[in-house]
Specification:
Rossmann fold; 13 helices
Length: about 375
Amino acid sequence: MKNIPKVLIIQPALPKYRISLFNELNKLLPDSSLLILAPSNDENGVHSITDGAEFNFTITSQSKHKLGFSWQPKAISFIRELKKGDILVTSGNPRYIFNILFSLTAKLRGVKIIWWGQARSAKTTKLSLSTKIKFMHIFDLVLLYTEKEARLLSRLTKLKSIHYLNNGINNKEILTLRTPYDARERDNRILFLGRLTEKSDFPLLLEALSRTTNVALDVIGGEPDSEILTTIKNLDLSEKIKFHGMITDEKTIAQIANNCKFFIYPGAVGLSLIHAFNYGLPALIHDNKKNHMPEASSFRELINGISFKQHSARSLAEKIDTMVSSDILLNQLSLNAIKVSKSNYNTESMAKNFYAAITSLKH
């Protein structure tokens, strides 16, 4: 029996939203060639979920962190087992320096190595981008989150093998759950979807809501801490906001999203934007493109959403009031939001792009 080259993908964690991507990729690759390796959780507290996985995987003990660096138990031993012709995909985050250095040792044995990650995000500095680019030159191929990042990198470097995925979500279930969008038939409810972290700039949204009337907010993604609850009380917003907690069941999310007029995210938006677009929800995000995550490249001003001046509660409040009273515009924005999620930014399309990157190394 002919040996099938292995494809080892090392992840900081295996979150639920990656399951369908690897399931789709597994269908495209030869039987038993794909193996996903991930610790039980990463440095941000993201837990590995294996429910529904149709691919081979190994979950190790929790990743370890010290002096700003992270390393994954057993990753090095798995890398050492790779042979000439095998393919290794590892995180491009410089914090995982040990994985990157051992990827180089694998390359010396004839293993093809792929750098996978974000070239630029909300927290990327010139120094961190420069560091990433230096590491990229070690690898045979660079795999980025979005096409926009790929264009940027092509201008900044002479790297020859640059590919992208257009990072998205599994939208197959959403397509069966999404109800037809007509802003005229929806209450003035807006949706915040995402974790309540510093990145979200949620306090700005609270301040903006205090300046609006006749608007309610649904929050999916976590429970408020004491500081947020105090702010809500001080601003007299208790009747305006409903916290639904951390929900992963798409049917439950759909019941909420299908009743909202648009999606709002005051901070550095990422994958939540794609999730909202799949429900046909127009987006309201800030106007500083450099201070968003890569997925924000799917946003188009007055095409699938509207932007406000970053850090300005007044601007955000004004745009909220504008959107809740612009049903005809919202209906057009919704149509374009669905087009984006249908043609790109979904896991089926991602898997095809991933497969194209892998197979390009065989030639």
